[in-house]
Amino acid sequence: MKNHLFFLLLSITIFSCSKQTPLTEKFKCKSVKINNLESVYDFNKNFKIRIPTSWKTNLYYDKYESSVFAADTLRELTDSYILGTSFTYGKLDFNEAYIKKIDSVLTVNSLEKIDEGNESFKTKKTYWYLVKGKKNGFPYQQFNLTVKLSENTYFNAYSEVYGEDNIHRRTCESISIIEKIEFLQ
User: Fold this and answer.
1) Rg of the chain over all Cα atoms, to the nearest angstrom
2) pTM of the predicted structure, to 2 decimals
3) Which pLDDT tens digit goes with each residue over 19-46?
4) Is the Cβ–Cβ distance between 117 and 106 less than 8 Å?
5) Tell me: the pLDDT tens digits for 131-155?
6) Topology of domain 20-183, CATH
7) Alpha-helix runs per DSSP H in 27-166
8) pLDDT tens across 80-124, in order?
């Protein structure tokens, strides 16, 4: 009886650890383990993000937005990524006008949309897209995620992955960090 209970608990643990989120499933990300994490709160304490302790972080806020920017400054830019997250006060609807506005900004910045979707994020309405282009002389990809939190608030996260090596791994690693964000409001 004890052996059956042990194997049942082990099976549940293994199954629950390997369960993918809609985003990691969409991007075909393997499980990512990031060590030595610390909690960083945005200035207004609207959300908490867990990032490696060795990363450099900057906070920004004004009356409409509270943001955390983070990057691994110990590695080369083409071996790491930049992560930006923000909690914003304002109305947002994921409608045709919103998509056209994003497409217009992408065109002005000579960015090509690779993929987009609306997989839910923490049970909230979401729109995400992945683009590629050049920035500061480097080829790069940018993953953007916008989450409607309430009628008057939304959350945005992006990661910029520079260079041409290990793009998928670095994008998946950034998605893993983004998915562990805790909304405090």
Assistant:
1) 18
2) 0.87
3) 788 999 999 999 888 999 999 999 999 9
4) no
5) 999 998 999 999 999 999 999 999 9
6) Protein Transport Mog1p; Chain A (3.40.1000)
7) 96-108
8) 999 999 999 999 999 999 999 999 999 999 999 999 999 889 999
Please say whether the beta carbons of 143 and 82 come within 8 A.
no
What's the burial of 66, exposed, middle or buried (CB within 10 Å: 0-12/13-18/19+)?
Answer: buried
CA distance 78 to 68: 21
The residue ranges of every structural domain in the chain are 20-183
Q: Give the residue among 132, 185, 184 at the shortest CA–CA distance from 163.
A: 132
CA distances to 109, 140, 141, 164 from 105, in Å: 6, 16, 15, 23
Report the C-alpha gap between 172 and 58 in whole angstroms: 22
Q: Which two tokens stand for residue 122?
A: 């923490």
* Cα end-to-end span (Å), the chain: 45
Give the per-residue pLDDT at 2.
52
CB 64 within 8 A of CB 40: no
Cβ-based neighbour number of residue 156 at 10 Å: 16
